[in-house]
Amino acid sequence: MNAADRLIESTRELLWERGYVGTSPKAIQQRAGAGQGSMYHHFEGKPALARAAIERTAQEMSAKAEAQFQGAGSAKERLIAYLRRERDVLRGCPIGGLTQDPDVMADPLLRAPVTETLAWLRGQIADLVAEGVTNGEFDASLNPTQTATTIVAVMQGGYVLARAADDAALFDDAVAGILPLLGKFGER
Amino acid sequence: MNAADRLIESTRELLWERGYVGTSPKAIQQRAGAGQGSMYHHFEGKPALARAAIERTAQEMSAKAEAQFQGAGSAKERLIAYLRRERDVLRGCPIGGLTQDPDVMADPLLRAPVTETLAWLRGQIADLVAEGVTNGEFDASLNPTQTATTIVAVMQGGYVLARAADDAALFDDAVAGILPLLGKFGER
DNA sequence: GTCTATACTCGGATAGAC
DNA sequence: GTCTATCCGAGTATAGAC
User: Fold this and answer.
1) B103·A22 Cβ contact <8 A
2) Staple A99 to which of A38, A139, A155, B163, CB 3.0 to 4.6 Å?
3) Is residue B28 part of a domain?
4) Contact between A100 and B161 using a beta-carbon 8 Å cutoff
5) Tens digit of pLDDT for each residue in A128-168?
6) Which of A119, A156, A164 has its CB closest to that of B115?
7) Cα distance between the two ends of chain B
8) pLDDT of amino acid B187
9) What's the mean pLDDT when you consider all of chain B?
10) Boundaries of domain holding B126
11) Interhelix angle for A25-32 vs A46-69, to 10°?
12) Residue B99 to residues B28, B159, B184: CA-CA distances in angstroms?
């Protein structure tokens, strides 16, 4: 891996662990095994490097989700498979967590991938819910857009509660508690 | 308000806006209209001041929630009133947001009020859900503890999505999407 | 491309005067 | 109790040598 890539990867890790305000150029360089000269040769500064890192993280997150959404199975099966997929729960969501970072939210270039990725995710899930309603897996009274927002919120909030309690099981509980919503109500 | 109180209040605001790693003693002093001497006379340092600030915020948040939980109405009515209560959605949750702060999570004294407040909140809501199941407002198949975790997660995640999209309506959508869970399933 | 030197501000705090 | 002076390292770069 070349220096530019190592710098981006280090930045991704540090943004995940410590956020943008908590991450210094020096820390990035040390983790990447690169000097200052190298970093400032490849990137204009900390914001440019962070932008590259956040974009890569957003791409990766979308790609992973998309693979689940386009996998085999009914809409409901794919949705539940996505919800139950293995996650690094105690580290939090590497995109959602950035919403707490004041400097990320204040910079349109850093903020955009965060905004867009979560909006895209809600859209994808809304499509799955709509498909499930159409094929009769879900109750017809569900509002796909609203339900998708709730589902993504449960995950984002699940990360928060799990981190607060230092217990990954809270993420699973939060998700499990929403599953009744994804049954046909008349059936239970 | 005396200097110590002004310092705590400034710290509360800054922790909410910028988190712990993003908040400097100097910024606290300026907002409080207090000098360094004053700050270091009243508090041992930034962590001690932050501890006082976080504890006060946690107290206030619990007290507000408790007022709702002990208000008039059935369990379901009180729960929904709490969920729909007015909130400063775009600023995020002043307690939940701290879970993203690496230095808060790393310091047991700063972390404890966060952990405890969210655990307490889940417990309170679990009690409300259990009461609602008992009195027949909620479906008997609901698991109170798990459902409470889901409800708190929806709120915490609602803040995240609203901030990401810069749109408070997403919080309301997330909450609205969970309400069907709080009907009796057979009735819909 | 990468290194080292240099620069200047800020973060976080201590010391002693008033 | 509060103010000012001072301290030292860290944050965030720029400049020029190699």
Assistant:
1) yes
2) B163
3) no
4) no
5) 999 999 999 999 999 999 999 999 999 999 999 999 999 99
6) A164
7) 53
8) 72
9) 97
10) 56-182
11) 60
12) 21, 13, 34
